[in-house]
């Protein structure tokens, strides 16, 4: 086995260990203890974050920010990773500490010259853009950890209306449009609620024991369970159809009228979504007319009167 191969295998070995001795390395690779020390020294010079602990029970430890062994990507894989890095620039907060520019430079430095030129051309013509939010989310990493550990926690939460303390079971964390959200089972309200992580002011472990909910983040994001069905029927103009097709909530329910002019939506929604649906169609103005349910019609009428009063 060549020295280069041994160093590569040694890099894999130390990345799987919290601590080890030169004797451990010598036995693992069938080399002398002196050679093991020399190889470990070379790894340190290569940038692997090793440090030694002197004394009888000493040895080597690797810092928590471990260096990954070399990974070989093909051109398309490298480009996909590079531009994925670029899309992260638009997030104010990330669940991991990473210098995006540094990671991009390291990846770019390993690419062949012709591929580097290709990347330069693509950077001016290809962009995975997100609206950049200037919202700090200091408890993001903590929220993710508690969800991963299936911990029951107490949070201080600042909603639009008030500051409350909730006992919740965080099911996961996801991002949408630059904002981080945490679906969690709320034990006071006996149901899953959605919390903006940037509005969580404090997280502490609960002193009480509760059963953890039998659901996953995927269940919440990809399943829509209707518990209180409401029939929705809406007339749409051509512009209203375009707006509804742009909304994931309605996009699959938009139908075109038989004469090709305008269209309609007819679907079953849940009672809990009435406020959202009312506000959405209020925003479409004359390009949408809700026929059913009557409750939404009344809500939109009330909102329209409030706006009229405000602008008198």
From TrEMBL:
Residues 7-61 form the Helix-turn-helix type domain. PROSITE patterns: WYL. This is Uncharacterized protein. It comes from bioreactor metagenome. Residues 148-204 form the WYL domain. Residues 229-307 form the WCX domain.
